[in-house]
Amino acid sequence: MKNERKFETEAIRTQLERTQFLEHSTPMYLTSSFVFEDAEDMRASFAEEKEHNIYSRYSNPNSSEFIDKVCKMEGAENGFAFASGMAAVFSTFAALLETGDHIVSSKSIFGSTHTLFTQFFPKWNIGTSYFDINNLEAVEELITPNTKIVYAESPTNPGVDILDLEVLGNIAKKHGLIFIIDNCFASPYLQQPIKFGADLVIHSGTKLMDGQGRVLAGITVGNGELIDKIYRFSRITGPSLSPFNAWVLSKSLETLALRVDRHCSNALQLATYLEGHKKIDWVKYPFLKSHPKYEIAKKQMKAGGCVVAFEVKGGVEEGKKFFDAVKLLSLSANLGDSRSIVTHPASTTHSKLTKEERESVGISDGMVRVSVGLEHIEDIIADIEQALG
Ligand SMILES: *Cc1c(COP(=O)(O)O)cnc(C)c1O
């Protein structure tokens, strides 16, 4: 990166040029299209001889500011912003793959991404082989002459397992494959996968980036040539982020570092409190020394993230009682929100998997996932304590 400024500074000072009104904070550009000086200006803009916003399905100043910021945070060359995280995932793969191509993916990925790979991509004869994140030695055996992409997430959802990005990146490079990481659980503040060999990084902006549970968004950043393909596909198919949501997100990123620091310190305090609690079988958090991949987490992340997983003793029954007793924390499907959220993956987000499938991705029946928010940690712990009682 050319720029020497620090993460927090870029998050605040990466901003569109001021208009003639000399506004301090970036205004919203709620416009579907843009005008041209004359016929020649319009011709040259359409011919891409000059950079000019044409239509907000292609580009919009608010989206550009958001993309610019995330590129600086991730150390990426370019990016494209989408209406949701899943629009980013789908469009990235659809833009890069041909019929007959093959994906090698971690088994522990976001549920909708898993469904996309197994239920929809086969329609276009695109196949996926899954590997276990605890067995990266087996990845090379899955690679075929048609393999194009290696895909993974770390930390994983909801099991908060950690995958060694550097090891996987080296395998992808050795075989000339495109290495893509969904970095949504870590956020660009905690982990920059491009440093470990990722060609593209995908985020659901809905989670820690917005951080206040308001908007859906997605973004893909990385290698300029790959992004160009994604841009050409997306400007035609129309999954672009709305300028309003882009504006909200760019503002949110100004406080990403501050917020994520607090999410992480709250989460670590909760995890430490739960460790050894008599009503808990186990607790998992990447920055607890007891986490099986603690050393790898330390190597690739700045802190452990906002998600803590634990198992209430007594399995499903006690788990359900715990959920019914929670008062302050929300029962909701989001994560990375300022409000703490608890979910029970086995009966909700991952209920469509068989018990065996769930266990193979680290989800047990009584497992609870907490997305630790920004409330005072004593109130978060007090609610969990009373619910366990
Ligand atoms: C939420 C999420 C997505 C999907 O994002 P949406 O904005 O909900 O479409 C993708 N990957 C991960 C890891 C997520 O947590």
TrEMBL record:
PANTHER family: CYSTATHIONINE GAMMA-LYASE, TRANS-SULFURATION ENZYME FAMILY MEMBER
Oligomer and partners: Homotetramer.
Organism: Flagellimonas aquimarina
EC number of the protein: 2.5.1.-
GO molecular function list: carbon-sulfur lyase activity; pyridoxal phosphate binding; transferase activity, transferring alkyl or aryl (other than methyl) groups
SUPFAM superfamilies from the UniProt entry: PLP-dependent transferases (SSF53383)
Cofactor entry: pyridoxal 5'-phosphate
Pathway: Amino-acid biosynthesis; L-methionine biosynthesis via de novo pathway; L-homocysteine from O-succinyl-L-homoserine: step 1/1
Keywords linked to the UniProt accession: Amino-acid biosynthesis, Methionine biosynthesis, Pyridoxal phosphate, Transferase
InterPro entries referenced in this protein's UniProt entry, alphabetically: Cys/Met-Metab_PyrdxlP-dep_enz, O-succ-hSer_sulfhydrylase, PyrdxlP-dep_Trfase, PyrdxlP-dep_Trfase_major, PyrdxlP-dep_Trfase_small
Enzyme class: transferase
Role this protein plays: Catalyzes the formation of L-homocysteine from O-succinyl-L-homoserine (OSHS) and hydrogen sulfide.
Protein name: O-succinylhomoserine sulfhydrylase
Cellular component GO terms, alphabetical: cytoplasm
PTM-bearing positions, type N6-(pyridoxal phosphate)lysine: 207
Reaction catalyzed: O-succinyl-L-homoserine + hydrogen sulfide = L-homocysteine + succinate
Gene name tied to this protein: metZ
Keyword set includes Transmembrane helix: no
GO biological process, one term: homocysteine biosynthetic process
Family: Belongs to the trans-sulfuration enzymes family. MetZ subfamily.
